[in-house]
Amino acid sequence: MSECTLQVIGALKDISLAVAGIVTACVAIAGLKNWNRELKGKAQFEVARNLIRATYDLRDKLNMARSPAIFSNEYPSEYSHFDQDPKVQASAEEFVYQARMKPVLSSLREYQTSALEAEALWGKDIKEKCTAFESCIGMFRNAVSSYIKNTASRGEYFNGREALQKTTEERLWDSLDESNEFTKEINRKISDLENLTRPHLAK
What we know:
Layout: H1 3-65, H2 86-122, H3 124-152, H4 162-172, H5 181-201
Helix pairs in contact: 1-2, 1-5, 2-3, 3-4, 3-5
């Protein structure tokens, strides 16, 4: 075999090794991109799932707090329903709703954590929807405050303020039918969150 032939064979071998190296690098890069894509998709799925779970849990805790039925064991042990002092009655009602708010606030903290994670991934739109739903908790707390003020004043607080009374009662108590406007508002805001998170849950 001539020297020229040996040189050609050597060159072809070098080219083959170079091509093999390029192919290996391309495969590695493609694999890395797929791996990164899978990681990102998994992260988005987890964040979406955590957010929707926290949303539903907060909704359920708020629904329980809004139950119009107040049982005797929810009142302070020393409270008597025969006591006609409006301040005593107001204090007893405040006791009831403070207890009802504890699981709501605990759930709210989890929700806020999930909302921050979602904002980090998806930005302004999801933040606005999360804040909109969270505002329902503030509306409920304001309704509780107005209701207790009315009890303490023997009904004078709502006197001549029928619109405030109607809004307070709708926010304070849920209804068995679907006529409650505040419940409808809560469900609309949850639906907005579902629409933004559902595509990430389908991946």
